[in-house]
Q: What sequence folds into this?
């Protein structure tokens, strides 16, 4: 029996992208792979969700984008977390902790 991959809500995807970029810049495919690796393959970020989210985060000023050359010598857009993005990630993580604790309480109730 195969393992199913969870779907991500928009706000959750934004938080995961910010988290993936914590340790330096990477291109879109690298961001998707990093999230998948950190989730131990339980999450898959679809291209149709990833690139609009990257654009949205850049418009918010939470990440910045610049053109570069990838490992296989292709022109690629690289994304980097901004100072504002780091602050936003901290706020998102705190909110996620509160939300996940509340949901767990409800699920554990009789």
A:
């Amino acid at each position: 029996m195969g393992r199913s991959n969870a779907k991500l809500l928009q706000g959750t995807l934004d938080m995961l992208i910010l988290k993936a970029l914590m340790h330096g810049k990477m291109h879109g495919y690298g961001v998707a792979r990093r999230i998948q690796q950190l989730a131990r393959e339980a999450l898959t970020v679809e291209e149709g969700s990833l690139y609009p989210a990257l654009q949205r985060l850049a418009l918010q000023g939470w990440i910045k984008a610049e053109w570069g050359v990838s490992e296989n010598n292709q022109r690629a857009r690289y994304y980097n977390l901004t100072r504002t993005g780091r602050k936003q990630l901290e706020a998102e993580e705190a909110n996620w902790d509160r939300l996940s604790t509340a949901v767990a309480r409800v699920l554990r109730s009789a």
